[in-house]
Amino acid sequence: xxxxxxxxxxxxxxxxxxxxxxxxxxxxxxxxxxxxxxxxxxxxxxxxxxxxxxxxxxxxxxxxxxxxxxxxxxxxxxxxxxxxxxxxxxxxxxxxxxxxxxxxxxxxxxxxxxxxxxxxxxxxxxxxxxxxxxxxxxxxxxxxxxxxxxxxxxxxxxxxxxxxxx
Length: 166
Prior knowledge:
By secondary structure, the protein is an all-alpha fold.
């Protein structure tokens, strides 16, 4: 069913959303700590799953991806409501505090963001950022111009930033 949803089968997408909905709502209640924003966060996660199911590479990545989306949406809604200040308080930078999560969580987030990239961008990003190949080496191996490699790398990084910001 997941593969059919990933390929755009509307019935499979609806079934996937129906299966994921209870978990998403549970994540939202926990992440938003029971606030009224939990329903909004759950709806946003369902909407994003609907829109991006084609870019998720494996069923195993769905659960982690949804949890990250819900957690970030709860934080965004809390900030908008003024419940979480964005300015430093008494010399404590809350943005930096939230960003100082355990390495394993950060690695999982980055891996999920990388998995969510379309194949043509993921390959270029992996070659540059993981294998540490130069632009010329990537261009030669892929048979692309330097400009095409740079454009794909830029797009990949922008998509990852967008994914991680959610």
